[in-house]
Input
Amino acid sequence: MRRLVAAVSAVILSVAALPAVSAAADDVAERRAAIFERLDAVESNSEGLSESDRLAEFLAVYFDYAMLEFPEFATYIGQPGDHDRWTDNSLAADERRDGEQARGLAVLRTIDREQLEGEDRLNYDLLIQNLEEGVEGAEFSGELLVLSQLGGVHQSVEQMAAIMPTRDVQGYEDLLSRLRAVGTLVENDIEAMRLGLERGVTPPRVTLRDVPGQVLNLLTDEPLDSPLLRKFASFPESIPEAEQERLRTEAVAAYRDVLGPAYRELHRFLDEEYVPGARESIAMRDLPDGEAWYAHNVHQMTTTDRSPEEIHQIGLSEVARIRAEMDEVIEQSGFEGTFEEFTEFLRTDPRFYFETGEELLAAYRDIAKRADPELVKLFGRLPQVTYGVEPVPEYMAEQQTTAYYQPGSLEAGRPGTFFANTSKLDTRPSWEMEALTLHEAVPGHHFQIALQQELEDLAWFRRFGGYTAFVEGWGLYAESLGEEMGFYQDPYSKFGQLTYEMWRAIRLVVDTGIHQLGWSRQQAIDYFLANTGKQEHDIVVEVDRYIVWPGQALAYKTGELELQRLRSYAEEELGDALDLRSFHDEVLGAGALPLSVLDLRVRDWVAERQAAAGAP
Output
């Protein structure tokens, strides 16, 4: 069940497919049977375990199940074994996992919560919530939405190949095994998309316009020029030359025999069937059970019970507040003109743009280097995993957002990566770069996710999972720390920071406007243009993202507003006694949490500080 991937980890890569028949399939079936025997033992408790020990065994079973069913997840976290398989993404397997998830929830409910304490009780509550939301989500047709301009089999294979451990021959053999199985992956996804066409469950046609081209960008005359075989263009020195030649030859054969034909068929299907047959409407409410589906997404992404209408009003209020601050910055800059004239100046003046992608990347790396030494002023604990700044892969850059982060892994020896988009350089202004770097790298996503993975006492599903409202809320909150870190010293960078905050406030308005209130795509674009200095190309890419990812865009501002509220609360309650480093360590010290749980955690921490200050 694909939804379980989201429940296990907010950052896991897209799923793929197993070979149809193999000895490995028999081994997987035997391992699955053994896992469910252990689950039955948790339920029957024939050994008379305590409720705490039953929960610990459930967590161990759940981990082994996740590693078995989602081997990409095992690769992502650096867990040994199973790097030669893909997840079985067939509709039959998806239905099977729906039942298995419901079964897991039923067993978990047999554990007596009242006999659990502390972290055990919190883990139980979070697991119940995750599994309940997964079972609820299974009522909708998410398994039919397997591809969009933002992801799918045309991107996930390349992305997984890029992070697979290939330090030795076995690593390359594992990668080859996966590449040889891509034909099954594509066949299964085409089957799901065909069923989606029959049932009217597809992405909007307008958002799919460039996807066939993305697939074509994977197909090259020379196999080794394809992004899919990038790892075979050069090898570590530790691999003998004879082995390098053999592996390279086998990779070329896999491209010609499997990858090329599979992606050419995918392109044909998209170009001739899927894109022409996709729905014209853009709102999630227009899908079967669409209003309930959107409400489910809103709840899951924000971890609140707010209605789309409530969120829309919060967005309008935030847009008005931030707009007033932007007007103040314009006045302070000395610019004489209207808001529209100032944003046009920011969009068009050559001083704000780079001539080459390398210059853009160098500027991002410079900002990151300036941010690193400032972290000790705001945090007591720093992550061990390093990070780098790399360009978004060229084959998908024009349809991708301005930047994104890919987590690293201490276990896998893989650094985190801040991907910056170097396409269309006339849409990548320098005034947005400081805020974006703080969001994606440090103290934003890299900092928070790396720290979370290094919390070894945390239950595994919390070390490697997450809640979007927390994760993205932290990223936006991290942008606001820029002034305390010495950034935003000129009015243009400060306006850039406000532009990015405005961008997230606009998301509250536009996402709910599109999916709940009936806004048109052009209405959303026009609203965006009227309130920010961002380039129209970026805005179109963003709006199309909200269209195919309903509810996700609501997490950023929702989480950031809660983090700002909790900081204000701590400042009011503790006054000069507040140590901001300790506050941040407390917020990040239990990993990503639902916002209501975070609220309780911070309030308990403040109360402990107050009690300690009042102690004789």
